[in-house]
Amino acid sequence: MSKIVATNRKAYRDYTVLETMECGIELRGSEVKSIRQGRVNLDDSFARPENNEIILYNTHISPYEQASYLNVEPARPRRLLLHKNQIRKLIGQVAQRGFTLVPLKVYFSERGFVKLELALCKGKKLYDQRETLRRREADLEMRRAIKSRRK
Fold first, then answer.
1. Which of 80, 2, 74 is nearest to 34 (CA)?
2. Residue in 12, 31, 111 with CA at minimum distance from that of residue 78
3. 34 with 64: CB under 8 angstroms?
4. What pLDDT sits at residue 106?
5. Mean per-residue pLDDT for 130-151?
6. pLDDT in tens, 69-94
7. Domains of the chain by residue range
8. Which of 22, 29, 81, 94 is at 20 to 30 A from 46, Cα to Cα?
9. Is the pLDDT assigned to residue 1 strictly greater than 60?
10. 33 near 67, Cβ under 8 Å?
11. For 127, how many CA atoms within 13 A lie in the half-sphere containing its CB?
């Protein structure tokens, strides 16, 4: 079973998730230790294709205290590790249809590697966000009514 370290809750609110995929992240040793402590923040992070690679931006990994001079910049761009055919597919979809690549969660795989769940998303309009909220509240009220009816 994989251990989830961080999730991007804003992604589900602001975007419609169309497709997800697992990918690795190119990290330094001190960054991995910091992630093991759960000191990673995915809010406002996104990925963008550049030179036939997918680069992750705005992901904040706090510096590891014991690493001293080996620490790197917390919000530096990081390369995502994907197969070439996956990269080509993502580049085509982002370029043609105006989709966005958003990280959903960071976790450790069974083998102990840091993995990132990357999603191909389409931005929600404000009225879509309100509709989702309305639907969620209606479902909650229905469940409450059914539960009170049983008693």
1. 74
2. 31
3. yes
4. 93
5. 85
6. 777 788 889 999 999 999 999 998 88
7. 3-124
8. 29
9. no
10. yes
11. 0
Listing DSSP states for 66-98 in one string gives GGGGG---TT--EEEE--HHHHHHHHHHHHHH-
Look up residue 86 and give its amino acid: Q
What's the rounded Cα separation, in Å, for the pair 133 and 61? 31
Q: Which fold has domain 3-124?
A: Small Protein B; Chain: A; (2.40.280)
Q: Average model confidence (pLDDT) for the chain?
A: 87
Distance CA 19, CA 96 (A): 16
CA distance 52 to 57: 16
Residue 97's pLDDT band (boundaries 50, 70, 90)?
A: confident
Length of the chain: 151
Determine the longest span between alpha carbons in the chain, in angstroms. Answer: 63
Asked if 129 contacts 13 with a C-beta cutoff of 8 angstroms, the reply is: yes
